[in-house]
Amino acid sequence: MAVGIATLIVIGVSAAVSAYSAHKASEAQKESTAAQTATADKSLAVQKEMYEQTRTDEAPYRQFGSGALNQLAFGLGIDLPAKPAITAAPGPPPPEKAVPRLPGPIVTRPAAPRTAAPAGAVPTTPAGVPGPGAAPQAAAAAQTRSGYIRMRAPTGEVELVGPDEQDTMRAQGAEEIA
Question: Is residue 25 part of a domain?
Answer without folding.
Answer: no
